[in-house]
Amino acid sequence: MAQPTPPQETTEHLDEPRMSRRQIALAILALSVGGFAVGVTEFAIMGLQREAVADLFGEINEQTNAQGGMLVTFYALGVVIGAPVLSLLGAKRERKSWALFLLALFAGAHVFSYFAPTFESMLLGRFLSGLPHGAYFATAALMAAHMAGPAKRARAIAVVLSGIAIANLTGVPVVTAIGQAFGWRWMFAAVALIAVLTMLAVWVYAPRQQAPRGASMRGELSGLANQRLWVGIALAMVGFSGMFAIYSYISHITVEVTGLGEGVLPWVVFIFGFGMVVGNFVGGWASDKSVLGTVLVAIALVATFMLIFGLVAHIPWLMVLLLFLIGSSASCLGPSMQTHLIDTAPKAPQLAASFHHSAFNAANAMGAMMGAGVIAAGWGYRAPAFAGATTAVLGLVITLYAIYLTKRAGEKV
């Protein structure tokens, strides 16, 4: 069976100087620090949602908690809109300078959020913060894949994406604890600082990398006429949404269902983050062997673990264990889905790579709204887990169709 066509950037730029393994490792590590900043802002707000709701609304109840979920949703909407738009604008640009611009935009939006006085202005700040998210990851992933070469591209992409997972393991618990102790808005100051440090690291270690010869906005758009790409986007949206239905309300589940104190929340998000780190690297390793095979196994595990989570969330040790398993199995999808989308549109690598993050954050928004809907309906804080398990089963069906399309195209699954 034929191998999938690698993205153009792994075979282009033959005039670029060769890099040592150490240089490549440092460059990819620098790019991953940006993912760390993104992971902190995307997930720490979930652990600090009770503090944010209390500050912005003056009271905590099911209605204000549901509104607080919009802080997650508006960030995700920013990613959904910003990823394709900014990726198109950057299609012809030198990638290092474009990555630095996106990081500067990201840092500035967090400064705005820190000073936002009202709930509405905070929603705007979250939206602006999300705009550069997907375009940065698309640029960083393509730079890493190009430097690593076709045989190790999924693992290189996994390292870039690992910033999000490691943020959940270390940054999110620390920022959650700081926010609980000194004020939840300090999260935005911390992320802005990390973004500036990332800019310095990328500027020092990452090489300049021109876009593929002949790259253009028109070329990127023409590459979107591909059924497999859109099936992959739908798969990513549906496959990830269940995880966010749970995690968007993890602070409320921990306190209201499991009966643990708020002081335990940093440890709860630490366990979830540890699962994400494990799943991310396992997913990168497995995806270099079989991209869609990894997706199939991972999404089946997500459905199973979420169903069990809903049943046993009142038992502390089982809730924590299932949260780890959900985080690890869902994170396996990250490198595999990013690689799959690049494979489906080799003539539009920048845009295809960005759609992974649009889809991921559309899933974030869908999951948060789905969780808010079942909670507002009075079904309780366990309901998001059952709703998420249902969407994961739907994702399993879409995965089987994606496998069928890939085999029909004569490419490796």
Overview of the molecule:
The chain has about 425 residues and is mostly helical. It has a single domain (about 15-410), classed as Growth Hormone, Chain: A (Up-down Bundle). Helices cover about 80% and strands about 0% of the residues. The protein is built from 17 helices and no strands. Helix 4 (about 70-90) packs antiparallel against helix 16 (about 350-375) and helix 5 packs antiparallel against helix 8. The chain is globular and about 55 Å long. Residues about 1-15 have low confidence and may be disordered. This is DHA1 family inner membrane transport protein. It comes from Nesterenkonia lacusekhoensis. It is a multi-pass membrane protein.
Order of helices and strands: HHHHHHHHHHHHHHHHH
The largest sheet is: none
How large is the count of helical segments? Answer: 17
Give the quaternary arrangement of the chains. single chain
Shape: globular
Strand content: under 5%
The structural domain count equals 1
- Total strands: the figure is 0
Mean pLDDT: 85
Q: Pairing-aware structural class of the strands and helices?
A: mainly alpha
Distance between the termini: 9 Å
Question: Which architecture would the CATH scheme give at its second level?
Answer: Up-down Bundle
For the CA atoms, what is the radius of gyration? 20 Å
Q: Helix amount, in percent?
A: over 70%
**CATH domain class:** Mainly Alpha
CATH topology: Growth Hormone, Chain: A
Low-confidence stretches: 1-15
Assigned CATH superfamily:
MFS general substrate transporter like domains
Membrane topology: Multi-pass membrane protein
Domain Major facilitator superfamily (MFS) profile: 27-407
InterPro entries: MFS, MFS_dom, MFS_Efflux_Transporters, MFS_trans_sf
Pfam families: MFS_1
